[in-house]
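Hey, resending since the last one bounced:
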Amino acid sequence: MNARAVAIDVLARVEATDAYLNVVLDQRLAEAPLRDPRDAGLVTELSYGATRRRLSLDRVIASFSDRRLAALEDRVLAALRVGSYQIFFSRVPRRAAVSETVEGLKQLGLSRASGFVNAVLRKVAGVESIPLPPDSDLAEHLSVRESHPRWLVERWLRRYGSAVAEAMLAANNDSPPVTVRANTRAGTREALAGLFAEAGLTAFSTERSPVGLRLPSPGPVEDLVGYAEGRFQVQDEAAQLVGLYAAIPDGARVLDACAAPGGKACHQAETHPVLAVDLYPAKLEKIRSEARRLRLDDRIEVLAHDATEPFPGSIGPVEAVLLDAPCTGLGTLRRHPELRWRREEPDLARLATLQRRILEGCQAVVPPGGLLVYAVCSTEPEEGQDQVEIFLRSHPDFTLEPPPVAERLGWPLAQGALRTLPGPEGMDGFYAARLRRLA
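The structure tokens again:
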């Protein structure tokens, strides 16, 4: 089966199941490894690229299709997107992009649709570039050019202005490097960089996180030197900054209220005992497994619990609560491009209500003088700044208290809270607020 067939199958599965693209891709490659390791890289590029550029691709596909795209079978539409992505956004010769994509569709048992796909893709290949709306309607122009939903483009233009908004949109269409956080219980960042260098890997220190390294093209993470020994954990630099911004005193017991997938829980466990809480036992088992790999299992307890409900008294005393709340994930669109097609503006209000409920439960277990660290991987104020302002108005015994080190290290702050945006810095979009309960 060629790489196009696998990419088509991956995209169709994502569409049919609403699963995360990275999860489906990993599962599919594990089911039937490709003969040439380079083909796995091509499958990844086609799957992510076609998802990122979906709106742009669909615009040109629809202009040549005599059938409504919504009426097409998932794999047929996926083949049109994979073929069109190669035509406009790859170095693959256009004739090869068409023929290899049609062959991939045949390998999936859809020869009956191959004539239709071939005809549409040949017409698409005759277009020099994707036609764009005039820039007199800037929101529509950017929506098509950068392939983001118009409602989100309009929000970013209003809030950040055209220059920043365009940078954010462009950044979301870049392939992010693999960023790892050195496990400081196992060694320093410098020691980890030396280990990578000995293995022939070039690692670049992250600019703001003192424990991060970027690996531009490392291949499968599980095959990297030091992975099995727990020397590092994959984590975006912005997520690393959340754990550092929390500045929880060493040794304090931490409750991580929505712990999956476990990156922040394991980060805290390097210096604190952690109670990792999540609604789903299967996710807790993954956190256990990761803690064992990192040699941190002696520092992490797990508890299956719905964080919208009061925490049981049996959890014992905690000195800090970390809440990485469920959110739209709009700050992670370069890593999870499928989210841009699943999220709608009303989701912000729905999730903000859920976040407030969880915040209420979390504040109840914070002792006088203790910390509550609230974080979301979102760019939107309803989930970040607005949420914290509402909380502080209704809880006058809490105050926003950024750690002194944040300003000294040049971390991006907004009114004392941590805020990162997609853009030239190469980080995901996060918001975090460090809240102290007055003694």
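The chain is about 45% helix and 15% strand.

Sorry for the duplicate.
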